[in-house]
Amino acid sequence: MTAQEVRLCGLLLREHFGEVVEKVGVHLLRSGTQNLRAIFHETGISLDLVKKTLCVLMQHGFCTFSSGRRGPGSPTEYRASCDRILRILRYPRYIYTAKTLYGDTGELIIEELLQRGEMTMSSTVKTVADRLTQNMEEGRSMDYSEVTSAFSKLVETHFLQRRLPVVRSGTTISPTPGAPQTSTPPATPTATSQPESFPDCYRVPHVTLIGKGKRRLSSEDGEDQRNTKKAKMEPETHGDEGIYWQVNFERFHLHFRDQAIISAVANKLDQTSSEIVRTMLRMSEVTTSPTATCTKPLSANEIFRSLPSSYNIARPILDQYLTLLVDDPMEFVGRAGESGGGMYVVNLHRALANLARATLESVVQERFGSRSARIFRLLLRKRHLEQKQVEDFAMIPAKEAKDMLYTLLSHNLVQLQEIPKTPDYAPSRTFYLYTVNQLQTARLLLHNCYKTVANLMERRMFETKESKRLLEKSQRIEAILASLQASGAEPEQLTEVEEMITVPERQQLEALRLHVNKLDSAENQTDETIFLLESYIGYTVTS
Description:
The protein contains 21 helices and 13 strands. By secondary structure, the protein is mostly helical.
């Protein structure tokens, strides 16, 4: 965990939860594991606020707790997770993916769960149905069954999962207030846990909800009114009390990884090739482990039967496409086993490594020019080269090649390896070889990406703070206009209210919105690079 990661985590916590949560979260990231008393004394925040802040962090999965290091009876200790906090940066992408796959209902379900951290199915369905009803025409309402169906689909495809039980000292303790204690076997409370360790992880409970607009006709009678008041006073039950759901971030990440590979194949070859790779990934997404370097082997017949009928690809054409994909230097698709045969796999690790390499080459070209990118690309392929060899292979004059190599070396994009002929390391008897360590360079670029996003967020916060008064005025006027339109005001009244914002102020607001949109877009694009580099580093380290 670097200083730039901690800085970015602090900015994300401040923007979404406020300065108090930021202070406690950053303190835990820098200090490591600490108990409640230590956090209270070292942060200078009141004990009540520290407790509430820890509850917020734990509800969103940013903080975990465990028994003290001194054994049973010692104070509970808390630890913040940098990786989980950095996922806040990807929230818009999660929401947009849910909208693409499951429409507005899926979008709102994911948005509510990301905002609350965890919710029961019944409360999620009711909240989303109410929000959808507000956006519909007057007199219409969203039925609970439609939202329940979308929720169930998200669970079936593993985009949602139950909050896993937390076990300590042989007793299962739910981190959410009001959740019942159970005798579930111990399981690690992380989103990466597999259903094998928690069998009910993706089991949808039977929820009893009365749909919208299904009120009894005799509700105006006095007896029914008394029964309704009595029912309101009693706690409402839906059959899923204590079962809390959360977003399965790892499932979204697998989807992003697959989409990156499919998009790369489409750009490198054509749309038909990308559809074949998409089919292979879809067929093996259930049977392939999230950490596997390649998918399960698939025969050409299986792929042919699973292809969409709209493409009308004949079997001989499919064989030609598979051969083309196998022979492509990017190695997105390979043959299963050393002997080859008719079984095919998608090389997940190699695909991510090639995408990461293309990203590194692109960065070098943008920063240092096409000739430096040529040298960098040459070193990636040849591994180790002397300066004279670099000059000859890259066909660049000696002076320019030397300057470019030293520039890349000073930015840690290229490493220099010394191989002495004798033990005294005399320069005249030593080989100096230039090389590129792709994993180390990817980590360096990832660190720079964190710094870039933090700078973009600080700039956006500064721009918003500078125009705070104008933004508040614009919001007040928009609220007044909405109120007047709802009450059926005259056009002259609406025009008079609109003129409360002068022409220069409108121009300033428009320039601010344009600038903020550009900063937001830059943050999202940088996060795509962050995800690609994180995936490549994760696969390389674990494989």
